[in-house]
Fold this sequence. Notes:
Strand content: 5-15%
Number of domains: 2
Structural class: alpha/beta
Oligomer: single chain
CATH architecture of the largest domain: 3-Layer(aba) Sandwich
Number of helices: 13
CATH superfamily of the largest domain: Type I PLP-dependent aspartate aminotransferase-like (Major domain)
Shape: globular
Amino acid sequence: MNEDKIKNSFQNIKKDVGEVKSNVTEILNELRALNYLKSSKLVTPSKEVGSEKIFTSKVSVTEGMRESVNEVFDSGIFTSGEKVREFEKKFSEYCGIKHAVAVSNGTIAIELVLKSLEIGKGDEVIVPSHTTMPTVEPVLHVGAKPIFADCLEDTYNINPKEVIKKIGKKTKAVIAVHLYGNPADLDELAEICEKKKIYLIEDCAQAQGSRYNGKHVGTFGIAGCFSFYPTKNLTVCGEGGMIITNDDKIAKKSRMMASHGEDGRYNHVILGGNYRLGEIPSAIGIKQLEMLESFVDRRREIAGIYNEAFDDNKKITLPKETKNSKHSYHLYVIRVKKEIRDKIIEKMKENNVFLGIHYPTPVHQQIVIKNMKNLKPSKLKTTEKIVKEIISLPMYPLLKDEDARMIAEKIKKIVNER
Length: 418
């Protein structure tokens, strides 16, 4: 073998070794992600399918989360420390946005954004009614008036055409909820808000890991508001929230209001409160953020199992993913005839499977809203129809494939009963 052939052989070997190393690295990264979901530290010992109670959600707790909490105990710093700053930095980087402000919950996140935009008494904010009360509470707390818009029947999100009908001289903002983790129609909503010179605020409480046109939700409007409640895709194992924005003013003002209106220690410039997120939940949030993509991938796998199982059943309406979107499946919600919904829920309970309804009463029909004399009664045809038909199925990363299939088969059997 001449010298050139030897050199070529070594170069080829070097190239092959490089490719092997690259492939091994990819495999190791995949295994690390899967380890979050399949390690013995997360998954309880196997039991007979259907022998244990299955709820709509379940928190994934890892040793890394426990260790991060112990680090906080060892540091002796429990508020406004390095963990909070690290969580904010990593969350903003994950979302691809300039600012992230950690707060005590998702509800106050919306309220602080509204206050930062100086929305208050005499103003109107367009909101969906098919959502949970915390979307609307902040509007009321700042003294503004919620104007309810109907939803789309296929995605359950606020209907842009209905938004246009509701815009008036007093309209200052639209709150778009990415319900169940399914992005709202952000192109159309952003265009409407820009044309009418009103703010688009995104309620991303259920949408960690959701994307629209390749971008993370919360980055399309003036600000995005997140919740880290225990049922969410990313949780701090308690209460927690985050505001994300590219607007320097909103970021600064929200941060000040979350900490007694301070601009520097003991320098109170504006009226605020105590809405800070602590070090322990921030430490947990950092670890959960590391797992979020694998969590969302797993949720989408489970959604795929449900979709396949229900595909041939015309009596069950499946969730529809918004066009050009990545649904993170905080919840997997089907629809059935209202006459059989309660029967399905009760019979599944007998099988140790606990289904949910998100949400049984639209916000515009809540007693607190009905009792407000300044709010005119709303008639929202689509919203009022679907709330009688929806059922939330178990959806969390630790749900086993065989359990998801069992749930689907049992529901189909009940639906097909005469």
